[in-house]
Amino acid sequence: MRGFLGQSLNDTAVRFTIHASRTLGKPGGCAPFWDILRGTGGAMIPLSDENPARLPPVVTVGLILACLAVFLFELTYDEAGLDLLLSQYGFTPAYLLPAEGSQLPHLPVPVWVTFVTSLFLHAGWMHVLGNMLYLWIFGNNIEDAFGHLKFIAFYLVCGIAALGLMLLTDPASNSPVVGASGAISGVLAAYMLLYPRARVRVVVPWLLILFPVQIRAVWVVGTWFALQLLTAVLTPAGEPGTAWWAHVGGFLAGLALTPLLKSSDVRYFGPFDPRGPWADG
Question: Nearest 10 degrees: CA dihedral of 275, 52, 65, 81?
């Protein structure tokens, strides 16, 4: 982990979801994951939160282990083999809604299955580690608030909804979309509804120095979503790169599903702070 955080975090770290675009055999760009709040010197990187959970996060840990295991399997492929793997098991909108007369490649699974398989594929070390860091920090509390079974259903539905919005906004895309970020966007939405006052420990890189600070979750997640929505609106459809609309779709699904799935004893907008809701951050 030390080397992971020591990477250049301004422009080479991974952003929440990418188009692992392999159009014409060329990998798509991987935008930085970390620039939730972007300043002159760099990005804000969350490390942990001050929000203990009651239940053991067995589903969260299981999802992390599954994604890591799949990524290690990906490493056994050469570049051509990985291109083929991502194109077959990543979610490609044009495969689900093919243009008239188009010739689709042979897929080893029905195309609708890629709504799920794509959530466990990642395009690089920084991509998978960045996603799993966010799932580790925020997922345990949402699993605690929903219960184990409802949490895994929530996670998968948010991921599918994220890809569904990608399908609506860019149905002709031939670039496979991979990554857990659509599902994790839903987790972030639930966290903002249930725990906006929770303190999140982050570091802000400036040159070679990492400045640790604490900030309320509502600012971390709220600013992140505002940037995703703004960038999605401003980015032309069909442009390879980050799947902005998938982030938006997963987040909106999380907002819609949280009231239906949270346990009755979990209140909105906690944890409550006697010093005031937005004290010190």
Answer: 0
CB-based contact 179:123 (threshold 8 Å): yes
Phi/psi at 19 (5° precision): -75, 110
Would residue 75 count as lying in a domain? Answer: yes
Res 208: pLDDT:
78
Tokens of 104: 């689709």
What is the mean pLDDT, run by run of 10 residues, along the chain of 281 residues? 28 34 34 38 75 93 97 94 92 82 79 95 91 95 96 97 93 90 96 94 82 89 89 77 86 97 88 48 43
Whether residue 25 lies inside any domain: the answer is yes
Identify the domain containing residue 114 by its residue range: 2-98+106-261
Buried b (16+ CB within 10 A) or exposed e, 51-82: beeebebebbeebbeebeebbeebeeeeeeeb
- What is the count of structural domains for the chain? 1
Asked whether 214 and 280 are in contact (CB, 8 A), the reply is yes
The CATH number of the domain holding residue 156 is 1.20.1540.10
Is residue 274 a part of any domain in this protein?
no
With tokens 């093919």, the residue in question is 98
Residue 269 is assigned to a structural domain of this protein: no
Phi and psi, residue 175, nearest 5° = -95, 120
- Cβ atoms within 10 Å of 281's Cβ, excluding its own: 14
